[in-house]
Amino acid sequence: MSESAVSANPPPVRYEEDEKYLLRGQRKVGPVLNALIERQALISAWISPRNLSFPTALLEYSADTGSVVIDASVNEALNSAVQQCSHLTCVSQLDKVHVQFRLQGLRLQTLAGQPAFVAAAPSQLLQLQRREYYRLPVPLTQPLTCTVDFSDRHGVISRRDLRVLDISAGGIAVVAPDDQPGFRPLNAFESCSLQLPDSEPLPIQLQVRNLFRQKLANGQESWRAGCAFLRLPHGADRLIQRYIFRMERLRTARRQGLV
């Protein structure tokens, strides 16, 4: 299998931001694994934490033994990295639906004279429609802001404008404030507003789903918070989708030298 084929699938998405799309248990996960085998679907395998990848395919799935077999890489160094990794994130597509699962404890064996990896079958699997998982990075030259009301222990409200890093139909990622310890996973914020170009501020409710350090383009580090929309006003989802479509079309035109 050619190593260059890995570009056919998108990179993994974060489980924490899309938990509602997780399938759990053998009865739900098994049929998807069988479909990947039957259709000989190309899988991009991402080695964590080294962020290396290679193309593979799901060769076998056994509900009786609770195991799967995937094709090994033609690169021996990558095979060695797989055996030492914390986990392997497998990304594929079925009928234009993003499919993603993790494998741990992979063992290199020989199957029908060819190297292959054996691992425990995944207990959960992520399925996302493209419009649900696609996140648009917000360009620095055309920034978006989300205003969040914070309340201290005395009930005093302070309003902060947070820079939006990316946006999707299901939520946003923002630069989290260092001085607000309450802005952490599972906490909800009801009084927020999202400012899109050429529209009135959208009143929204957010829930923080994950929080981690990241390095910005200028070399500085900041906290990145992935947030889900808890409630959107009527018509807001169409405005967000329209903005994403317009910005993606503009980015494609610039990449092609049309603007």
From TrEMBL:
The gene is ycgR. The keyword DNA-binding does not apply. This is Flagellar brake protein YcgR. GO terms for molecular function: cyclic-di-GMP binding. Residues 21-126 form the Type III secretion system flagellar brake protein YcgR PilZN domain. Monomer. Interacts with the flagellar basal bodies. Belongs to the YcgR family. Pfam families: PilZ (PF07238), PilZN (PF07317). Acts as a flagellar brake, regulating swimming and swarming in a bis-(3'-5') cyclic diguanylic acid (c-di-GMP)-dependent manner. Binds 1 c-di-GMP dimer per subunit. Increasing levels of c-di-GMP lead to decreased motility. One of its GO terms (biological process) is bacterial-type flagellum-dependent cell motility. GO terms for cellular component: bacterial-type flagellum basal body.
